[in-house]
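Need tokens for this chain, all 314 residues.
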Amino acid sequence: MEDKRFALLIDSDNISAKYIDVILDEMTRHGIVTYRRIYGDFTTNQMHRWKDELAERSITPIQQFQNTTGKNSTDSALIIDAMDILYEGNVEGFCLVSSDSDFTRLASRLRESGMEVIGMGESKTPKSFRGACSVFTDIELLIDSESGKTGKKKKPNIVSQKKISDAIIEIITSNENDGRETGLGEIGSALVKKYSDFDVRNYGYSSLSRFIEEMDGFELRRNKSTVTVTLKNDTSEIVDFAIKCVDKAGIEGIDISQLANKVYERFPNFKASKVGYATFQKFIHSIKDLQVEKLENNQKNVYIRREFFDYDDE
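Here are the structure tokens for all 314 residues:
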């Protein structure tokens, strides 16, 4: 399978020259860069560093004079070139390097035409541009990785680990309902599709497997070259506790909300969603010794299943 061809278009007004090496290195993961263009006013002192980098890396500068204060001709030139390249039909994707939300519509338009759009920018890049790209990479993160800085510091604009965890649970649960296992690679692909800027390096990890292993509620199972991800289902202690609470309530049963309060008080880290159930009630339904019944006042009570009651011989 041939590598995808990409057009690399850099907005020099919003990106420092110090990132050029990591940008080019990162693009080798995606394919071959056949167009290398950078846009800006290279007559200004701020562009001195960029001018030193261009010839060495075979990047074509597209000069845009700042004729009018407050008007960004760089953005317009980059957008026009992107559309020209699109219609030439010589690439399968674009890499737009900018921290500017002005390229949000361009990214969306390119994707509408079937292009893969790799976005790169600093952590300040607005969510609108991040979300418009197929994949978005924080280039400050790439610098940190190259220099060996892997601290788990809080980064702005990244997806919370809670949302990531919920998405993984949804993927695994859906596959289990279809009788399928969930591969590590499948989870990685699905997360990038759902959150275009998802990158484990944002959370201080170098690999997806390590990232998931250190999250609560998941297990990785390795079989030769295959790695699958499952939900941790060691709920026996919680199940036993719930049964004891219901049994103690006797034949009148216990309101399901009261039972939930008792369980969460006893096991504060327990969440039904982490063991594959959307609600606490569905978790209780899964316990064969218990049954849930709806009363006339819409209250839901939990009882020991009738077949498990001890009856005196008549």
